[in-house]
Amino acid sequence: MVRVSLFLMIALSIFACDSQRFRLRSGPKKVDWKEIEKRGVLTVLAENGPASYFIYKGKNMGYEYELLHEFTKDMDIRLQIKTVHNFDSIFTKLYNFEGDLIAYNLTVTPERAAMVNFSTPHLISHQVLIQRIPEKYDPKKDSIPPPPLITELEQLAGKTISVWSQSTHLTQIKKINEALNLNMNIVPLDGDISTEEIIRLVSKGLLDYTITDENIAQINQIYWDNLNIELKLSSDEEIAFAARLNSNQLIDTLNYWLADKKNKSTIAEVKRKYFHRKRLPNKAGSEYSSSSGNQLSPYDNIIKRGASKIGWDWRLISALIFQESKFETYKISWAGAFGIFQFMPATAASYGIGPGSSVKAQIKAGIRKLNKNYKQWLAIIPDSLEATYFTLATYNAGSAHIIDARALAPYFKKDSNIWFGNVDSMVLGLSRPKYYNHPAVKYGYMRGSQTFDYVAEIMERYTEYKHAYPEKNDK
């Protein structure tokens, strides 16, 4: 079988199939580049996710956001982002003039091209299968070996594939299933579950397989390093920005900017930043892991001295440091966080350090920051252990979203002063509209799964460290 021919056949059948039609009437009002330039603001309707737009420790980021940030900077106008969490409403909002441009990792299709004016494609992607990399089989511990890695479409026969019900991926996998007679169990998931959350569930073993665009998969592989994204499920697809059909000047201006030679290197660098980063090697099990038997890291003494000053266990701080940087002192993340405690530059400056500061200075600053947050939570939550959990969560997500999660807790019969099984579930919920659109929430959407796992994993690692490096006063 020729794979390309199959994808072409499926693509043609998708375009031919009936779908829900969207009638667009722009009316007499017109807002094009002339009007945008006059008011000095380009308003963009964006998805809340790394391929489009998101906030990381207070900093605006996202692949499409960074392209448009450079564009508006060159055009000497401001960029305003409005996040849209329900894709079904995106075209309505555009034609209601709530925004000028859509940045939603939007695939170019003939149907959509009849609704909107697409820019020149800024990215080429294709659909891929998301699956867990099989773990090493140990017959002494495992009753059955893990399923093998799927490398051919035919191996999908009888498999359970969970896909967001509002995505083109659902249509694509149904067409593959029918074309090859694979008898798959295709499970449509509720639209309020984000693609990132579905991918997380696959990584954790709670779902078997899902599908997404390769660029989205590449980003999420950074968070979940046990995923394989190699099996291609579609031919290449173009991704572009979109404006109203009568916004020709805006699209022409944007297309000229995208095509300009001097911007090519900028665009390429943004692509590398989000989609082609090399994964840092996992050094668990190295001389810094609990199996080394003599020291946890080269910085044990510095951490112990700092921990004793604030009354914390040095092994807990070490568990946090491992979560942040794996003790890699010169690590700089794709978001700009640096060093052993992964300080963002603006926060680091307030503690008197920078990327060139010594490890000792960075550790001292990190412990000062932890102590400051801990005292703030202890004033609200008298239980010192619970205050510690909230301190860890704040280090990862900042205080705003954690305050939102606490505010939500009573509405869902949860205790706002207890982390595990209570506020942590509210944090996880803040990636879903039911939660982040609640009147009690002030700061909106967050990628809650990262903070949910962050606290749990640090505490699990802390327990391991206590067993590996016991002390006399351990209980």
From TrEMBL:
Localisation: Cell outer membrane
Q: How does it sit in the membrane?
A: Peripheral membrane protein
The cross-references to PROSITE patterns, in alphabetical order and at most eight, read: PROKAR_LIPOPROTEIN
* Annotated protein name in UniProt: Solute-binding protein family 3/N-terminal domain-containing protein
Gene3D superfamilies for the chain? 1.10.530.10, Periplasmic binding protein-like II
**Which key words tag this protein in UniProt?**
Cell outer membrane, Membrane, Signal
Source taxon at top rank: Bacteria
Q: What is its main location?
A: membrane
List, alphabetically, the InterPro entries matched: Lysozyme-like_dom_sf, Solute-binding_3/MltF_N, Transglycosylase_SLT_dom_1
Chain ranges of the Solute-binding protein family 3/N-terminal domain = 41-278
Work out whether the entry's keyword set contains Ion transport.
no
Choose one Gene Ontology CC annotation of this protein and give it. cell outer membrane
Q: Which SMART domains match?
A: PBPb
Q: Which Pfam families match?
A: SBP_bac_3, SLT
